[in-house]
Write a structure and sequence with these properties.
By secondary structure, the protein is mostly beta strands. The chain has 4 domains: 189 residues, Immunoglobulin-like, CATH 2.60.40; 140 residues, Copper amine oxidase-like, N-terminal domain (Copper Amine Oxidase, Chain A, domain 1); 91 residues, Immunoglobulin-like (Sandwich); 123 residues, Immunoglobulin-like (Sandwich), CATH 2.60.40. It contains 2 helices and 42 strands. The strands form 7 sheets. Strands 1, 2, 3, 4, 5, 6, 7, 8, 9, 10 and 11 form an 11-stranded mixed beta sheet that branches. Strands 34, 35, 36, 37, 38, 39, 40, 41 and 42 form a 9-stranded mixed beta sheet that branches. Strands 16-17-18-19-20 form a 5-stranded antiparallel beta sheet, with helices on one face. A hairpin with a 2-residue loop joins strand 17 and strand 18. The radius of gyration is 26 Å and the shape is globular.
């Protein structure tokens, strides 16, 4: 019998006298977080509340204006059955149990003291060519009259919330959101980064999507050296030897839900791409051991064009890849590898982790003649495998994943790996001058973009220049005893929509004005994700329980992608997103047609109906594009609803 879930919402009635209490500039009403024995406002449901990142700067303490500090960027999804007035929205910092910890309160009007909570609504507009998204600022500043409501809303709504940084915005902090209506106040449970509140789904963890791998009835084509992202090998092609010949943990070929392996990257999202195309690892995700990134053997080798083989000689197990006169042989748990018969020492051996054969990514890639580049942003690591630059170095002694220390995320300046794109020219550093280039990953210049040099001595005192036809800029700095940091924020049109990009310089380090600096910018990793919301009530009780990992999603490009390429069809399974919820991550920016199929073991595949969230009609397939929420230029998203096609059950 299928399980159906609803999130229990709690109501808060705040006495007027409580609203005037202050404690270190914040309201102390942790004990007022909920009132038992009452019901939530009728027809009001908080479907999702999550912290996306702490990397934007679009609001200040009192109005919708950047002030040089990073905001907390949250996502809110509401379902309002009828027109509902929202009087105020309040974000509180709390402990894990929802009790105020007095680190900050953010709000939309003077219902409490605190800082501004900026709200941007994602509105879907239907045109003759399809649907598009518009970002509308709901509150450009404080509503100073406590009686002035935020607005009246109805239907399925998506909002981006921005909490101005008061010095305590951080991804390890817990937060609770309160939405006040005339009928009462609905309150979220405490959330933190990667731990969202999601209704109608018990799974909110991002660490273990499922205790069993997603089944696939479609075998991977043996003749394809570069499989489509997300393709799952059939059991016969699995890189892990069969349980009868391999000492599989506890005799169970499925990955354990709680591995004994201490993954150094458990709080890091690792994205790997090959020549600009994301590699989707279905059966096992990349891990880090002793500062080295390990990835599933078969998928990496086949992506690089190898024919793979698994050999067992007594207790010795070997993973072997062969292509064009090159043979790489890795022995499980051995620090010696063989490349065309020559011994090569490894810092970390190939090994079996949770029933999956994992191999060192950099060693295999660079031994194959490719260049490996590493970059990081917050808790996201990006590793790209590209054709080697002529005359470049392939240093196998370094690895894109540095050994984690007390700081779990490496800063770009700590990464010794150069960017994959060579410098257009060699720039010389000049005192009191900062200069450089803005270009894309292919090295093409991006002209007409404002570059900002922000000094750290005074607020709102940027110096600027515009990139020329070669993508070059040059800024003469003021003679001040201060350091400077570089950034740029610009838009580009794609299919009639403006996509916004916020970039830090490739070397994101402050520098002294008296010394000057060269700071280049590279537009790269232009990817998005879709969030998938299933309608659990569309499944009849005589069907097995629906699991998101059993949902196969096919994305077919419609027209050129943002980078001008034709793109490739992506077939993969829904998974836990790095931002929370379920869907598909790391999709190259473009227009796509999406379809979905429920594939569960022992049951015939069942087609699903899909629609863009907020539209009225379901269909077997629909087209969508991406948008980026206002002020969050590094994030491109869309939301898709899906439900079972009732005709498929007949």
């Amino acid at each position: 019998m299928i399980k159906k879930f609803k999130t229990v919402q709690k109501i808060v009635n705040k006495p007027t006298s409580v609203l005037t209490l202050l404690l270190t500039g914040c309201l102390a009403f942790g004990s007022m977080a909920s009132a038992f024995g009452e019901t939530a406002p009728q027809g009001v449901q908080m479907k999702e509340f999550s912290l996306l990142d702490t990397a934007t700067d679009v609001v200040g303490s009192a109005d919708f204006t950047p002030e040089g500090n990073k905001d907390g960027h949250f996502k809110l999804q509401l379902k309002l059955a009828q027109k509902t007035v929202i009087n105020s929205v309040v974000l509180r910092s709390t402990d894990a149990y929802g009790k105020d910890n007095y680190q900050g309160v953010w709000r939309t009007n003077h219902v409490t003291t605190g800082w501004l909570l900026g709200i941007v609504q994602d509105k879907i507009v239907t045109t003759g060519s399809g649907t598009k998204h518009e970002s509308v600022i709901i509150n450009p500043g404080f509503r100073k009259d406590v009686k002035d409501p935020v607005g009246e809303f109805e239907g399925d709504l998506t909002f981006d919330l921005y909490a101005s940084d008061n010095g305590t915005i951080k991804e390890t902090q817990y937060y609770v959101l309160e939405i006040e209506t005339p009928q009462g106040t609905i309150t979220s449970k405490p959330i933190t980064y990667k731990s969202p509140m999601i209704s109608e789904d018990t799974s909110t963890s991002t660490t273990a999507p499922s205790t069993t791998p997603a089944p696939s009835s479609t075998p991977k084509p043996a003749e394809s050296p570069l499989p489509s992202p997300g393709t799952t090998p059939s059991p016969a092609e699995s890189p892990v030897p069969s349980p009868s010949t391999t000492p599989s943990p506890a005799g169970n070929p499925a990955p354990s839900p709680a591995s004994s392996y201490d993954d150094e990257s458990k709080d890091i999202a690792i994205h790997v791409s090959f020549k600009g195309n994301d590699i989707h690892f279905d059966d096992a995700q990349p891990v880090v051991k002793d500062g080295r990134t390990l990835v599933p053997f078969r998928q990496l080798f086949e992506t690089l064009g190898f024919t793979v083989d698994w050999v067992e000689e007594g207790s010795v197990q070997k993973a072997i890849g062969t292509k064009d006169g090159l043979t790489i042989e890795l022995t499980i748990n051995s620090t010696n590898a063989h490349v065309n018969g020559s011994d090569t020492a490894l810092d970390v051996p190939a090994q079996i982790i949770d029933g999956r054969t994992m191999v060192p990514l950099r060693f295999v890639s660079e031994s194959s003649g490719y260049h490996v580049a590493f970059s990081s942003s917050g808790n996201v690591w990006s590793i790209s495998i590209e054709d080697a630059v002529p005359g470049g170095s392939t240093d196998t002694d370094s690895d894109p994943a540095p050994t984690p220390s007390t700081e779990p995320t490496p800063t770009p300046q700590d990464d010794p790996t150069p960017t994959p794109t060579p410098e257009p020219t060699v720039e010389e550093v000049e005192p009191f001058v900062v200069k450089g280039y803005l270009r894309n990953l292919n090295g093409d210049p991006i002209p007409g973009v404002i570059i900002n040099a922000d000094n750290q001595l005074f607020s709102d005192s940027n110096l600027q220049d515009v990139t020329d036809e070669n993508g070059h800029y040059r800024i003469e700095l003021a003679n001040l005893p201060t350091t400077w940091v570089m950034s740029t924020n610009f838009t580009r049109d794609y299919n009639g929509n403006e996509q916004r990009f916020y970039l830090k310089s490739d070397v994101d380090q402050p520098f002294a004005g008296s010394s000057g600096a060269v700071r280049n910018f590279t537009l790269k990793d232009v990817v998005g994700h879709i969030e998938i919301h299933p309608d659990f009530w569309s499944f009849s009780d005589d069907l097995p329980q629906f699991e998101m990992s059993d949902l196969e999603v096919t994305l077919t490009p419609v027209g050129p992608l943002f980078d001008g390429s034709a793109g490739k069809t992506i077939t993969t399974h829904a998974d836990v997103l790095s931002t929370g919820g379920h869907g598909v991550d790391n999709i190259p920016l473009g227009n796509y047609k999406i379809s979905a199929t429920w594939k569960l073991e022992g049951h015939a595949p069942l087609p699903m109906l899909v629609r863009v969230t907020g539209t009225s009609k379901y269909a077997l397939s629909t087209e969508f594009d991406f948008h980026n929420p206002l002020g969050a230029p590094s994030i491109f998203v869309n939301q898709i609803d899906t439900k079972l096609d009732k005709q498929s059950e007949e």
